[in-house]
Amino acid sequence: MIFQRNNGLQAYDEGRRWGHMTSNLYECMNNVLNGTHNLPISSLVQATYYRVTAKFEERGTQAQEMMTPGLIYSNTIIQNLNKERAMSNSHEVVIHNRAHSIFTVKELVHPPSGRPVGTFKVDLDKRWCDCGEFQALHYPCSHVIAACLFIHCDYMMYVSYKYTLQCIFDVYKEEFPAIPLQSYCPEYNGIELCHNPAMRRDPKGRPQSTRIHIEMDQREKNTNPKRCGLCRNEGHSKNKCPYCTDAPNRN
Questions:
Q1: Domain assignment of residue 130, given as a range
Q2: pLDDT (tens digit, 9 = 90+) per residue, 51-72?
């Protein structure tokens, strides 16, 4: 189900997701709406409206405050670039054309990820690096930074506009209007919907959730056999352990 949903989003996103297929956005919305899944429809809509309003105001204010002193990028992207910049100091660069756009970058030190050292092709004109991080993250990896520093080029020009504070602020700049009292709303003359009393939940007992579960909500069953907590053998519990004389319920 998740694969089909991501295929549909990727087919109509016009490249906005950069070819990535992930359910992170779905999980983010679940986090924002945490605790509202079992509310009535009217309360669910109201909680969604006010929580999204608070989130937009919070994120928009943060981006605006960071732009005030003249910052262009967020602290997160700057920290990531600083790490890549530090790694680039241990790379060896070779130029392969006169236009200074194609390079071979050789790692001399094992990267923090733990993978073995390698040699990667970097094409600045095509915004390409064999490691794949440049294409996936849309900001320079350590190999691209090493190539740019080798020819005295500013590697910040290869950071996508999507990481700028202005772009982040444009996402959250919309403001949600306050909902007026019902007495100020115009009179409604349309179709009226009435609830079905037969579908009302029984107030007695523990309330049952009607949320539709997907594959991510399913837990894997534990197939390991149960073992005794004292002797770690199968077939009995620690209360009836035949190997322990202190077992309280030993027969």
A1: 75-158
A2: 889 989 998 999 999 998 889 9
